[in-house]
Design goal:
5% strand; Four Helix Bundle (Hemerythrin (Met), subunit A); 161 residues
Length: 161
Amino acid sequence: MTTATATVSVISAEDLLKTWQGHRALTRRTIEAFPEDKLFYFSVGGMRPFAVLAQEFIGMTIPIVEGVATGKWAEYGGGPKPKTKKEILEIWDRQTMELDEKFPLIPPHRFAEVDTAFGQWTMPGIAMIQYAIDNEIHHRGQGYVYLRALGIEPPHFWERS
């Protein structure tokens, strides 16, 4: 008995970008929901404040896209550290436009090629992008806990536009 193996594409690069941008839009609304002082200083159980988490997302989004596209990995987390909610949102919005410009430049074969991103994570390009999305979702959940602890209703998690 022989078994046939089929390759099935589940999501296009264009749809993956739309998914990522949907999550980014939701994370942006989460950042907006925080009072300025709580964004930078409030935490629960010793976890990092949400501004620090937002900086983590900012520090990896474009470097991951550029790394997957080219195989050249910049230093993780570089760039200026925003000191206000307004600065975080300005950087976020610039990166959102930059993501739309740079993501389509990823050659299709690069999604399957294995790299070591930032000198520490070895995986195919698609897995690195999924890591960035999953990391944002995971930490946005922390932000939801913080907002609820502050008596603030977080954005609906299913509204990603």
